[in-house]
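User: Hello! I'm new to structural biology and keep hearing that structure can be predicted from sequence alone. Could you demonstrate with TSEN34 isoform 8? Please show me the input and the output so I can see what each looks like.

Assistant: Of course. The first part below is the input, the amino acid sequence of TSEN34 isoform 8. The second part is the output, the predicted structure written as tokens.
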Amino acid sequence: MLVVEVANGRSLVWGAEAVQALRERLGVGGRTVGALPRGPRQNSRLGLPLLLMPEEARLLAEIGAVTLVSAPRPDPRHHSLALTAFKHQQEESFQEQSVLAAEARETRRQELLEKITEGQAAKKQKLEQASGAGSSQEAGSSQAVKEDETSPSSSQAGPSNGVAPLPRSALLVQLATARPRPVKARPLDWRVQSKDWPHAGRPAHELRYSIYRDLWERGFFLSAAGKFGG
């Protein structure tokens, strides 16, 4: 069964597969309200979580499609511990990515070095064929050319240990597409008014819900709509 997390009257769906199931199988759209942490909020590129209208969340709970849960409030005293754990995890990820980036650059350098060596060998062969083996002067110039050509390869093979480190701005950040259900989450009864579900018993909510359910049962796909213009 799908889980909808409710907090302060807002019903949120965090799983990408759950959102797909709600829209494709149950005809409940909701609206995405999440934004990327490193980018400005753009209404055309919003993502998880999915915010359900109170009428949508109640309908899904009534038909038994989802379970409404009320997640426990985070303890402010544990914020520093969570922040420390996050920074530690980010530092470990940066170190791992730095090693992988250095290995990838070294592999690429070796590939380019092989191509350069092959090109130098082909060029040397052409020069030997053009110059001929009879003239000592030409042999001396060929030897000088060979020394000049072999020097770049040796200079290129040296700086493998001096690879520039991976900048922190290039750190890849993994964004989760699902959120695990909190261990201490408790089921929420939508029939009883509470801090997380203040809609119970309100005439306006009952009227909106009766209209929404009637239209949903007729097969209409309803959304929270939006505002056009400035």
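User: So the tokens describe the shape?

Assistant: Right, they're a compact way of writing down the 3D structure. Reading them back into a model, for example: Confidence is low (pLDDT under 50) at residues 151-160.
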